[in-house]
Write a structure and sequence with these properties.
A hairpin with a 3-residue loop joins β11 and β12 (265-270). 30% of the residues lie in helices and 23% in strands. The strands form 7 sheets. Strands 11-12-9-19-16-17-18 form a 7-stranded mixed sheet, sandwiched between helices. A 5-stranded mixed sheet has the order 1-5-4-3-2, with helices on both faces. A 5-stranded mixed sheet has the order 14-22-21-20-15, with helices on both faces. The chain has 3 domains: 3-210, Aldehyde oxidase/xanthine dehydrogenase, molybdopterin binding domain (Aldehyde Oxidoreductase, domain 4), CATH 3.30.365; 219-290 and 349-424, Aldehyde Oxidoreductase, domain 4 (2-Layer Sandwich), CATH 3.30.365; 297-340 and 436-718, 2-Layer Sandwich (Aldehyde Oxidoreductase, domain 4). The chain contains 20 helices and 28 strands. α2 runs parallel beside α4 (120-147), α16 runs parallel beside α20 (687-704) and α19 (621-640) packs across α20.
């Protein structure tokens, strides 16, 4: 597969895009506007993506990819959808990044052009298959007309149209010009699952070779002619300002070309990164810390804890939980706290920008290219169509690259530099100037009847809403779907349930999406607390859950499979334990069993993780397994080490020595089992992260009898 990293500069209308492209290449360009849950006539372009298939006269099949590859396998799985219906192999498809255009490329599940929330496949499942099917139908009709036969006498196979009875063949490229003159059908029939040739089969990652041989171009690799390299220091206190800077020593560093001062940052522009880094270290900077100079993490925690004593917005109410808990035979209460977390992607934040006065050109790896264009245009004081954005693969995103602050910074610096400048954040800057997963506090109460069955569930939690800032229109009545996912619509049959949320924004601290976002918090609370109820009832954790799943066969199936494969109930050595977690988030069901060992010094080793997944129709089994493995590693890291803390307004962690990652020698054995399903595809990228943390916490309880209600794990609390 070839990936074209260049982008057209024009922001074209749909009509001009189609006309110009067809005229320029003599090829066939298919554009479909495909609605989500609405009639075609009523569909709004702002809601629906456009699937573009371009077939040129020389036989090239180009998919303009509306989603972004950042390690999750999108650039293999999504082409499988097109290839399946178009009857071509994966190796016949070339990809090009979609330019910023929300009318053409908005994710139907988000309404904006973005890759996130584990919904690339979910959003692409029908539209891209329809695009491939419509292209195949038009090509078949073109061949039939040339031969003077009925289209029903022809079939598509391996990039050719074949006349079945005579064996005559025409390649797609040979039919491209004819196909361009044939109307595209509005409604197309899709293959039945039994006819799938690619979907559901293991496919090797098409982007792997380039990553191995180094030919893949990430955002950090962009090198337009004449580019200078810059790195920067931003106010160590969020909201602070630059007071003064002595740059004389920095200017004396060989290779340093320029010092750029901004309102709240200083950048050193140089011939190469080494000089930029030395120049930055030579600066003498004084900051005005501003109003957030005294903020500590404990201040944030206290504010959230106090907030949970008040009434919040009702996210879900079933029955009368307060009445039920008042008559319960047993009452259980718990308070849970989860910290700020950084993203720490392998590729640090970076962006290359060239400001020319009347236009600005940007090279970046982003999850939200249209957002980058819009915010960069605002920073540069330019119309949106005067900002050209080239997207690249990303060395990890995890939600961090849904933000455009790195592009804005680069544009601000580029406006003072003659020529293109690549701004690369040092690791310390990447961690200390991150936009963090929110800090959350939950107060939960449950009531059991005399048999230990849960009859009441009350959860009130407080924390930041990322959606309220990032997509304000989706924040309604004090609630948003991300913040509450995993806290409501639980898999368990609970007759009385009441969940409230209070939006509390931390002082000056920027929060953002983080792999599994809301569910990374809510599943921890839900699956920890259901475990506490099982203990209070004196019942086995798996059996207790299973008794609440008679109405939910998909949830029960993954729970049973995970428990069986993990050997649930088998004897373990002293200070070893198994913990389970079950969830339905991102449209997928997942059960995880973690087996951990707690040493006498309190350190925790996760030896084994067993995962059973029902993610609906599987596109690429290899991707499913890899995504679960990746998500588990991300979550284990958070459980054992993840925490961002502030003291005197400053983030205390700075690099991988203080914000530790899971080492390869600490990696658990991970087993993944997929339940065959014909349901619609579910999300995969984040599910593994949200479930593993409570599974580990529950396993620690099984090993030690000590309940963990805060993360990460504190070894001092677990010493023998």
């Amino acid at each position: 597969m070839n990936i074209d990293h260049s982008q057209k500069r024009e922001n074209l209308s749909r009509r001009s895009f189609l006309i110009n492209s067809a005229a320029a290449g003599g090829g066939f360009l298919l554009s479909l506007s495909l609605p989500l849950g609405a009639s075609h006539a009523a569909a709004s372009e702002a809601f629906t993506p456009n699937a573009f298939v371009k077939i040129t006269t020389d036989g090239q099949i180009v998919l303009t990819m509306p989603y972004v590859e950042m390690g999750q396998g999108t650039y293999t799985s999504i082409p499988m959808l097109i290839a399946e219906e178009l009857e071509v192999s994966l190796t016949q498809i070339q990809l090009e990044h979609a330019p910023p255009n929300e009318k053409l490329y908005a994710n139907p599940m988000l309404g904006v052009q973005a890759t996130g929330n584990s919904n690339a496949i979910r959003g692409a499942w029908k539209p891209l298959r329809e695009a491939g099917a419509a292209a195949r139908i038009v090509l078949t009709e073109a061949a039939a007309r040339r031969w003077g036969v009925e289209a029903t006498e022809c079939r598509a196979e391996a990039g050719e149209i074949i006349h079945t009875s005579s064996g005559r063949r025409l390649k797609y490229g040979d039919l491209a010009e004819d196909a361009a003159r044939i109307p595209v059908p509005e409604n197309v029939a899709l293959k039945e699952p039994a006819a799938f040739k690619l979907i559901g089969t293991p496919a090797k990652r098409l982007d792997a070779a380039g990553k191995v041989d180094g030919s893949t171009v990430y955002g950090i690799d962009a090198r337009p002619a004449g580019v200078k390299i810059a790195t920067l220091a931003q106010s160590p206190v969020f909201g602070g300002r630059l007071k003064s800077v002595d740059d004389s020593a920095a200017k004396a560093v060989k290779g340093v070309r320029q010092i750029v001062q901004l309102e709240d940052a200083v950048a050193v522009v140089a011939d190469h990164m080494g000089a930029a880094k030395k120049g930055l270290e030579a600066l003498s900077i004084k900051w005005d810390d501003g109003i957030h100079a005294a903020v500590d993490t404990q201040d944030v925690a206290r504010e959230l804890e106090q907030a949970t004593l008040k009434r919040g917005s009702v996210a879900q109410n079933i029955g009368d939980a307060e009445k039920a808990i008042a008559t319960a035979a047993t009452r259980v209460e718990a308070t849970y706290r989860l910290p700020f977390l950084a993203h720490a992607a392998m590729e640090p934040m970076n962006c290359t920008a060239h400001f020319r006065g009347d236009e600005c050109e940007i090279w970046i790896g982003t999850q939200a290219i249209a957002r980058v264009q819009q915010m960069a245009a605002k920073a540069a004081g330019l119309p949106v169509d005067k900002v050209i954005v080239h997207n690249h693969l990303s060395g990890g995103g995890f939600g961090r690259r849904l933000e455009a602050d790195g592009a804005v910074r680069a544009v601000q610096i580029a406006m003072q530099v003659d020529g293109p400048v690549k701004v690369v954040w040092m690791r310390e800057e990447d961690i200390q100037q991150d936009m963090y997963r929110p800090f959350w506090v939950d107060r939960v109460a449950g009531g059991l009847d005399k048999d230990g069955k849960p009859i009441a569930w009350i959860n009130r939690f407080a924390g930041s809403s990322v959606i309220a800032r990032w997509l304000p229109a989706a924040f309604k009545n004090g609630l948003d779907p991300d913040t509450t996912e995993g806290a409501i619509d639980l898999v368990y049959a609970l007759p009385n349930l009441h969940v409230e949320y209070l939006q509390v924004e931390p002082p000056g601290i920027r929060t953002a999406f983080w792999r599994s976002v809301g569910p990374s918090h809510n599943v921890f609370v839900t699956e920890s607390f259901i475990d506490e109820l099982a203990v209070a009832a004196g019942q086995d954790a798996v059996a207790y859950r299973r008794a609440l799943l008679e109405h939910n066969p998909r949830a029960k199936a993954v729970l049973d499979l995970a428990a069986e494969k993990a050997g649930w109930g088998a004897q373990l050595p002293q200070r070893r334990g198994r913990g389970v977690a079950l969830q339905n988030v991102f449209g997928s069901y997942l059960a995880q069993v973690a087996e951990v060992e707690v040493a006498n010094d309190g350190s925790v080793r996760v030896h084994r993780v067993v995962c059973a997944m029902d993610c609906g129709t599987v596109i690429n089994p290899n991707t499913v397994e890899a995504q679960i493995q990746s998500g588990v590693m991300f979550g284990v890291t958070a459980a054992l080490y993840g925490k961002i803390t502030l003291k005197n307004g400053r983030v205390e962690q700075s690099n991988f020595d203080t914000y530790q990652m899971l080492r390869i020698n600490e990696a658990p054995a991970i087993q993944v089992y997929v339940v065959k399903s014909s349901e619609l595809p579910g999300g995969m990228g984040e599910a593994g992260t949200s479930g593993i943390v409570p599974a580990i916490a529950n396993a620690v309880f099984a090993a030690t009898g000590k309940r963990l209600r805060e993360m990460p794990i504190d070894p001092d609390a677990l010493k023998a």
